[in-house]
Amino acid sequence: MQLLTAILVVFLYTSCVQREVESEKVVHLHWYMHDTPFNGPNASSIPVTGYNASDFQNELAHFLRGQIYLFDDPLTQGPSLTSTPFGRSQGTYSYVSRDELVSYVSYTVSIRSGKYNGSSLNILGVNPESKIIKEYSIVGGTGKFRRATGNLEEEIINIFGPFNFSATLSEWATIYLPEDRDTIVKKAASKSLVE
Ligand SMILES: *[C@@H]1O[C@H](CO)[C@@H](O)[C@H](O)[C@H]1NC(C)=O
Ligand SMILES: *[C@@H]1O[C@H](CO)[C@@H](O)[C@H](O)[C@H]1NC(C)=O
Ligand SMILES: *[C@@H]1O[C@H](CO)[C@@H](O)[C@H](O)[C@H]1NC(C)=O
Ligand SMILES: *[C@@H]1O[C@H](CO)[C@@H](O)[C@H](O)[C@H]1NC(C)=O
């Protein structure tokens, strides 16, 4: 009897899990982000607190801890800043770590071209700067990305520096979308007729 219950529980559990996976849609998007800090009037990223240019080396020795930046970076479809626009990334990063160069990142990707024009994704996570591929969580979205979850992977592919630098980052998003409620209800109804 206990064995039967256990089998039933496992069966119910796996069928629930399968349904959950079946009712999601996956979207892959790729774009390039251009970040230009410090560069006078053209800076896309600016320090708002904790930044002391004349003491930068000392701050670097303390992992820039306490520095907070606001950014509004252009996104493009190709690696060049002058290639077809994709949208904008707007948000903040702040240096938080006591013993390594790590920033905490939170921003919104607003898409302004193609199929998802007008929709947005919200990104969150820490950026260990020594890591080649960074990974952030996609914690939500708007428009066609309502109730989205997923992951964003990021790699710096080009950097002109070291001061007044400009960096190009390649970003790949894997987005999981819940199906709309009506489709889920219809699927569940047709399933229960078969089972
Ligand atoms: C960066 O550019 C700004 C504005 O053009 C300039 O004032 C500043 O001295 C530059 N910083 C460095 C470290 O070159
Ligand atoms: C800012 O951008 C404009 C237009 O792209 C360019 O002409 C100018 O040289 C840039 N200024 C700086 C300080 O980079
Ligand atoms: C910036 O650093 C310099 C050099 O250490 C120091 O003299 C100055 O007081 C610092 N400025 C601020 C606002 O902390
Ligand atoms: C994106 O949508 C906006 C608002 O509907 C529209 O004005 C704009 O032309 C669209 N952009 C592209 C590249 O399709």
Kindly list the characteristics that best describe this protein.
195 residues, alpha+beta, AOC barrel-like, eight-stranded antiparallel beta barrel, 9 strands, elongated, binds 2-acetamido-2-deoxy-beta-D-glucopyranose
What does this structure look like?
- This protein is of the alpha+beta class and 195 residues long.
- Helices cover 21% and strands 46% of the residues.
- Strands 1-3-4-5-6-7-8-9 form an eight-stranded antiparallel β-barrel.
- The protein is elongated, with a radius of gyration of 22 Å.
- The two termini are 23 Å apart.
- The chain binds 2-acetamido-2-deoxy-beta-D-glucopyranose (4 copies).
- Residues 112-113, 117-118 line the site of one 2-acetamido-2-deoxy-beta-D-glucopyranose.
- The site of one 2-acetamido-2-deoxy-beta-D-glucopyranose has 4 residues, from loops.
Which CATH C-level class is it?
Mainly Beta
| Helix/strand order, N-terminal first | HEEHEEEEEEEH
How far apart lie the N and C ends? 23 Å
- Principal-axis shape equals elongated
Which ligands, by name, code or SMILES, are bound?
2-acetamido-2-deoxy-beta-D-glucopyranose
Strand content: over 45%
What's the arrangement of strands in the largest beta sheet? 1-3-4-5-6-7-8-9
Biggest sheet character = 8 strands, antiparallel, barrel
- Just name the CATH architecture: Beta Barrel
Short description:
This protein is α+β, with helices and mostly antiparallel strands and 195 residues long.
